[in-house]
Amino acid sequence: MKESVIHVYERPELRDPVFIEGLPGIGLVGKLAAEHLIQELNAVKFADLYSPHFMHQVLIKKNSVVELMKNEFYYWKNPDENGRDIIIITGDQQVPPTDSPGHFEVVGKMLDFVNEFGVREIITMGGYQVPELQGEPRVLAAVTHEELVEYYQRKLEGCSVDVIWREDEGGAIVGAAGLLLGMGKLRSMYGVSLLGESLGYIVDAKAAKSVLLAVTKILGLELDMTALEERAKETEEILRKVQEMQRAMLEQQMPPAPEEEDRGYL
Amino acid sequence: MKESVIHVYERPELRDPVFIEGLPGIGLVGKLAAEHLIQELNAVKFADLYSPHFMHQVLIKKNSVVELMKNEFYYWKNPDENGRDIIIITGDQQVPPTDSPGHFEVVGKMLDFVNEFGVREIITMGGYQVPELQGEPRVLAAVTHEELVEYYQRKLEGCSVDVIWREDEGGAIVGAAGLLLGMGKLRSMYGVSLLGESLGYIVDAKAAKSVLLAVTKILGLELDMTALEERAKETEEILRKVQEMQRAMLEQQMPPAPEEEDRGYL
Amino acid sequence: MKESVIHVYERPELRDPVFIEGLPGIGLVGKLAAEHLIQELNAVKFADLYSPHFMHQVLIKKNSVVELMKNEFYYWKNPDENGRDIIIITGDQQVPPTDSPGHFEVVGKMLDFVNEFGVREIITMGGYQVPELQGEPRVLAAVTHEELVEYYQRKLEGCSVDVIWREDEGGAIVGAAGLLLGMGKLRSMYGVSLLGESLGYIVDAKAAKSVLLAVTKILGLELDMTALEERAKETEEILRKVQEMQRAMLEQQMPPAPEEEDRGYL
Amino acid sequence: MKESVIHVYERPELRDPVFIEGLPGIGLVGKLAAEHLIQELNAVKFADLYSPHFMHQVLIKKNSVVELMKNEFYYWKNPDENGRDIIIITGDQQVPPTDSPGHFEVVGKMLDFVNEFGVREIITMGGYQVPELQGEPRVLAAVTHEELVEYYQRKLEGCSVDVIWREDEGGAIVGAAGLLLGMGKLRSMYGVSLLGESLGYIVDAKAAKSVLLAVTKILGLELDMTALEERAKETEEILRKVQEMQRAMLEQQMPPAPEEEDRGYL
Question: Which of B108, B172, B179 has its CB closest to that of A60?
């Protein structure tokens, strides 16, 4: 296997499909969001991407069956005839950071493939590492073209999540969430990256929920968030316990202040 | 040498050959098992695989003769006309873990080559690292397709070794033992991986013997295990001495318990 | 993206253009010099170079717009009809040192590209790391062909900067500043490398100014250095403060000498 | 530059030329030997090898002239009409150990090139690291084919240097000195590797002399060793001083023994 290869099981006719990416990364935010979307939409798998740039191993799945590391393509056909269809990609891994050229090669293969189905718009999902969190995770947005800021802001009006746009330059988006937009731009595609604030060290279903709320608002989809919300509650519980532990540790170091209220943050 | 290359010395006609892999790895289990199989069957070498992904050196063999690092292909023709033939691969090294794409390239070349001889079934052999061992090493099995679990379990009925099949997913098989199955699946091949439990830090002939007992049961072969058993006895002796040393060290740390029996394990 | 790729927006007719390189490196000297040159000449961007050997990320620019890492080509047409034109390259990064072959590939693409516009002469700009500095940074020069030493020395007569030429061999020029000359020589091009002495750990506008004074002398250009001089003054102020801090530290370690004058150097 | 490339300045007609390699390695033994041979034979340079697998830099040579890292091919025509000619390769570096495939690629290019001139026999020269040395460095020999042991032993009869041949397998020859033989074998070439014992941390002209005495014996050449012997004397002087320092350090640690003689070794 000299290059990444895509095994195609079906070639559905798709209507102006939007390509949504959710691969493993910070807090597994993108992957959780993609898996929930696939589950709720009953999206159908239609292709597997294998790559010599993935780890040289097989995973042991249920019942002792082995599989190479891979990324998976799913499609969803909008029941509304005038609506747009969706292609979602998720999977076992991204190319490791030690193999930059391999990362470009894999993302190039993804874009060439979804281009065959008429994809023009790309939405990438992931986590954005922050040192502390207060309340619901916000979503940081970035686009391929400046005119899209207003476009997506209009689409996001009324969204229950805080979507942040920055004026000053600074920072980077590493991996597929960034490369898909950067390389997509060179193929005349366009799109937006939505990264949920995350502490990074936990499986962050809260951040995934925030990101998915923004995505579904943009696409005009109604999505049952229950399963993700349950995972999110587990996440909140873990965060709360960590917060208590931290406070207890601090109190051992400092004299207690009178009436120290629960600030509700880490 | 831009790609791995196979030098073919002979092109035997083989009957539905099974491809058995035993390359260097944990405890050298796979390699020991393959070398013993080759020796007992008097298998004939018919090809060498060289690769730019192997170490950039030559080994000094007997009588000051140098050789590039390589993998070797052997064949065995079944004296039973209705029986199946065997191709075995063993060798000096696998591709190092720092060169994942190189690993895929080499395994791809192996599969393309054995495909020319009609190989459809693959059996990979290796070690499975465990922190401690009790009694005979068990063999962990994994397959390319779910329906093969039952198939191999039937073939293994009566095997003197414990072959373990797992229901839950988890873990991975790194290197050729895994890649041959994962990539073989993409070439419409099928097979099983048999990994013998091993502590990993010794040349583990006991684990090699366990694996080979499972392999020969599957293939319906009778194999004289004497040479391997002698190596296995040496292994047991080493293990026993290590165990005594460990017990002595523990006793220095704890008060001795009355009548401490020899539990026979590390 | 398997190879580096250049997106060309315009193909200007250029007259015997000299190719000037100023990419990120020691003290950012080359990049600062190139950016100032582009700004003062009002050079026009006409191509972008993208590469799978650059970092696998996008940068977040103003207004949340993302861009792949890239190098940029600018041209300037000399208002004097008998004068020579200029192509300048600057950008976000060079290929990281862990990917030597990638560095050769990218520089090869740059040379092939500028060759299409008739480039024969190359001037590379960068920093040269020194442990301490006294007064204005000098500029170390090196050429592709021995006969060019005298040629550039004549061109530099009267230059306000000290340009140093060495007789003894020793040292190396790492990265694009060196490779462009070395590989350019193989394409029958010629040129000079001008490296400004720099402590390396600061954004060194003083060194950039020294290098640009040498470049403009060679090209017979008048350049307004004000903006760079202002940055250079900031650099001097930083250097002076570091010097004071160092002197204070030394005094704490040694008994003070009577009448210790300000030697004005680090 | 995607592949290594050889710039050829002349294509001499050579008579059954032997290819002698002396590239940088342990103790710089091979390179010193090659450079001395080139100097004494007045060998003529006829080709340069450049490679993207060499370091991404240029070296600064005399008079500020820069050059890419390279390997150089020299030829010598034997004044004896029935004698054999010689091709020698030496240079700035070998491919670094982190780039194994690159090493194979470069050596492959070397072999393809010298094959064009009818090379069949290869002699590689280098250092063999030992922890201590006594007297003159011996030379360890290894060959491509078993029948060559006797062949080279006969050629070496009367050689003033101790050439060692081993019966047991073990060890490896890393880099070009090994790869040229291993890969040469696959191209139906044959040859011998001659490695001089060296402590490794000094520029070892003594070991280079030992190796060259063996090479010239094999080729039936008379070579003036004066220049190398002078360098060798410098090496001996350094070794003797190191030995004195070591003895002094040991004496400080142990009570002095009566009448401790000069054992003359490290």
Answer: B172
**Amino acid (one-letter) located at D240:** R
Which residues of chain C neighbour A185 with C-beta distances below 8 Å?
67-68
Residues from chain B that touch D142, judged by Cβ atoms under 8 A, are 58, 60, 64-66
C-alpha gyration radius of chain D: 20
- The CATH architecture that domain B5-253 belongs to is 3-Layer(aba) Sandwich (3.40)
* Set of chain D residues whose Cβ sits within 8 Å of the Cβ of C167: 62-64
Q: Which of C4, C103, C104 to mutate to test the interface with D (most CBs of D within 10 A)?
A: C104
Nearest beta carbon to residue C182 from set D62, D63, D66: D66
- Asked if C123 reaches chain D (Cβ–Cβ under 8 Å), the answer is no
A1, A67, A96: residue with CB nearest B104: A1
- Asked whether the beta carbons of residue A66 and residue B178 sit closer than 8 angstroms, the reply is yes
**How do residues D162-219 score in pLDDT, each as one tens digit?**
999 999 988 999 999 999 999 999 999 999 999 999 998 778 999 999 999 999 999 9
Find how far residue D85's CA is from the centre of its chain.
18
Q: How many CB pairs under 8 A join C and D?
A: 92
**Residue located via tokens 């950071």:** A97
Q: Tell me whether 0.95 is exceeded by the ipTM.
A: no
Radius of gyration for the alpha carbons in chain A, expressed in angstroms and rounded: 20
pLDDT recorded at residue C242: 74
DSSP A64: G
Residue to mutate among D122, D138, D145, D179, with most B CBs inside 10 A, is D179
B66 to chain D, any CB pair closer than 8 A? The answer is yes
Q: Where do the structural domains in chain B lie, given as residue ranges?
A: 5-253
SS3 sequence of chain D? CCCCEEEECCCCCCCCCEEEECCCCHHHHHHHHHHHHHHHHCCEEEEEEECCCCCCEEEECHHHEEEECCEEEEEECCCCCCCCCEEEEEECCCCCCCCHHHHHHHHHHHHHHHHCCCCCEEEEEEEEECCCCECCCCEEEEECCCHHHHHHHHHCCCCCCCEECCCCCCCEEECHHHHHHHHHHHCCCEEEEEEEEECCCCCCHHHHHHHHHHHHHHHCCCCCCHHHHHHHHHHHHHHHHHHHHHHHHHHHHCCCCCCCCCCCEC
Query: CB distance A58–B173 less than 8 Å?
Result: yes
Chain C nearest C-alpha distance from D9 (Å): 13
Cβ contacts of A53 on chain B, cutoff 8 Å: 100-101
pLDDT band at C258 (very low <50, low <70, confident <90, very high): very low
Share of chain D above pLDDT 70, in %: 95
* CA-CA-CA-CA dihedral for D158, D190, D180, D157, to nearest 10: 0
User: Is the per-residue pLDDT at C255 higher than 70?
Assistant: no
Q: How far is CA C219 from CA C75, C136, C191, in A?
A: 15, 21, 12
Contact C66 A146 (CB under 8 A): no
| CA distances to B57, C100, D161 from D114, in Å | 20, 26, 29
Please choose, from the candidates C127, C95, C97, the residue with its C-alpha nearest in 3D space to the C-alpha of residue C110.
Answer: C95
